[in-house]
């Protein structure tokens, strides 16, 4: 037999042998624990019958993943995902009586991801993490995600342990309470910290500045209070900062100008007040969305839009704003899709330049003191424009729409000849002049001309 044929036969049988090699079986202790955990999640499903105990890694439910180490006697569970999300991710479904089995925290030392979605939602049944229990997976966990589990009522400190490798800590819509633990400061690899819609209280620790890799910080819809730490300006990798719907007060930190990667800033519905719209926003070039609604910041809308052409969402509702709407917003914010300026004390005309906002889905100017004629240049955004509550606005008949339910122009009175004459008169300059000042200025001008003529005649 030739050497070539011998090598060919050896290679062929080696491939056949390798293709039939089975990965190492799941650790028996983990397998038995997994059955008990699955039963606690949904006792209506016969898990051992559907998934026999010869090896759960080979025939596991969707959402349960194992690793296959090259040099080990057993495989290990590395992901546990519970709760129906969609047909594309058919995780083991939770029942109405789902509970949190203690073995979940103590029997899977190689776990990298733990995910629960809408599993603990019986208000009559409170689920909590056992106290004084060390999670065996704490040194390996990379993602801990609990979403919409309102009956998970437990202190934040009981969840957070020594998660040295964690990248995502996402706890949304649960009953988690207490203060944000200083243990979080040690999560050097953390990229996302989302703790929204819980019952967290107290102040935010300034030492969060240690999370240098953090890209998402979302603490919205809690009961947090005090000042936003100036040290947040050191989180220079932040892309999203959402502190909305809390009780933060003091001044919006000037240090946030250092967040040069920031794309979303939401500080709406807090207690910031009396300092005006922060001018530093004009120095955050990647900003796409900024929401400050519900804070009585007061002042005028500043001219800060020159470097913010990429902004597509602005929420400045219920802020006590005064003065005119800058024309520059229509000229410079070409990508704007949402503008909320409603429920303020803005005056003057609607800028003609708003007709340039071709991507606008909503421009809300309701409940201000705007006046004059609605410019015809914005007729193409008429269905997206909200104008109610501005009694001094008027609209030309040609801008009326046939669909009363969708067109805000139909909610504004028709202009009469006097409205049109006054409005045209105050537009003799590019910025416009308030009709309140127009007549006094004209009288002063006539008086000045009379005095000049009188001086000429007396000189003769």
TrEMBL record:
Subcellular localization: Cell membrane; Membrane
Keywords for this protein: ATP-binding, Cell membrane, Leucine-rich repeat, Membrane, Nucleotide-binding, Receptor, Repeat, Signal, Transmembrane, Transmembrane helix
UniProt-listed Pfam families: LRR_1, LRR_8
GO MF annotations in UniProt: ATP binding
Transmembrane residue ranges: 437-457
Primary subcellular site in the record, as a coarse category: membrane
Any one annotated GO CC term: plasma membrane
PANTHER family membership: LEUCINE RICH REPEAT FAMILY PROTEIN, EXPRESSED, LEUCINE-RICH REPEAT DOMAIN, L DOMAIN-CONTAINING PROTEIN-RELATED
Protein name in the entry: Leucine-rich repeat-containing N-terminal plant-type domain-containing protein
Species this chain originates from: Lupinus angustifolius
């Amino acid at each position: 037999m030739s050497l070539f044929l011998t090598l060919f036969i050896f290679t062929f049988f080696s491939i056949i042998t390798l293709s039939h090699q089975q990965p190492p079986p799941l650790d028996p202790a983990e397998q038995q624990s997994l059955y008990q955990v699955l039963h606690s999640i949904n006792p209506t499903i016969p898990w051992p019958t559907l998934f026999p105990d010869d090896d759960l890694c080979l025939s596991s439910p969707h959402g349960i993943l194992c690793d296959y180490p090259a040099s080990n006697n057993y495989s290990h569970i590395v992901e546990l995902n519970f709760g129906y999300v969609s047909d594309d991710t058919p995780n083991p479904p939770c029942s109405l009586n789902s509970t949190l089995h203690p073995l979940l925290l103590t029997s899977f030392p190689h776990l990298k991801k733990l995910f629960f979605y809408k599993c603990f939602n019986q208000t009559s049944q409170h689920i909590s993490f056992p106290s004084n229990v060390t999670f065996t997976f704490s040194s390996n966990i990379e993602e801990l995600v609990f979403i919409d589990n309102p009956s998970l009522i437990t202190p934040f400190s009981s969840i957070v342990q020594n998660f040295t490798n964690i990248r995502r800590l996402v706890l949304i819509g649960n009953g988690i309470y207490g203060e944000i633990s200083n243990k979080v400061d040690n999560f050097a690899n953390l990229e996302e910290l989302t703790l929204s819609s819980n019952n967290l209280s107290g102040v935010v620790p300034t030492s969060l500045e240690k999370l240098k890799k953090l890209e998402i910080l979302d603490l919205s819809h809690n009961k947090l209070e005090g000042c936003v730490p100036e040290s947040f300006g050191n989180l220079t990798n932040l892309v999203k900062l959402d502190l909305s719907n809390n009780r933060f007060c003091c001044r919006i930190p000037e240090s946030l100008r250092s967040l040069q990667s920031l794309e979303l800033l939401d500080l709406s519905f807090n207690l910031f007040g009396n300092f005006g719209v922060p001018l530093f926003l004009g120095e955050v070039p990647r900003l796409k969305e900024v929401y400050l609604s519900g804070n009585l910041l007061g002042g005028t809308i500043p001219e800060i839009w020159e470097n913010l052409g990429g902004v597509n969402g602005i929420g400045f509702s219920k802020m006590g704003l005064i003065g005119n709407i800058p024309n520059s917003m229509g000229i410079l914010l070409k990508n704007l899709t949402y503008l909320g300026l409603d429920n303020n004390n803005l005056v003057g005309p609607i800028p003609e330049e708003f007709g340039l906002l071709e991507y606008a889905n909503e421009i809300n100017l309701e409940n201000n003191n705007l006046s004059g004629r609605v410019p015809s240049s914005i007729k193409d955004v008429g269905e997206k424009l909200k104008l109610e509550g501005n009694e001094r606005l008027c609209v030309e008949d040609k801008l009326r729409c046939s669909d009363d339910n969708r067109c805000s122009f139909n909610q504004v009175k028709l202009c009469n000849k006097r409205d049109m004459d006054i409005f045209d008169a105050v537009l003799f300059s590019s910025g416009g002049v308030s009709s309140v000042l127009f007549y006094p200025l004209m009288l002063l001008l006539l008086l000045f001309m009379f005095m000049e003529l009188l001086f000429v005649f007396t000189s003769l």
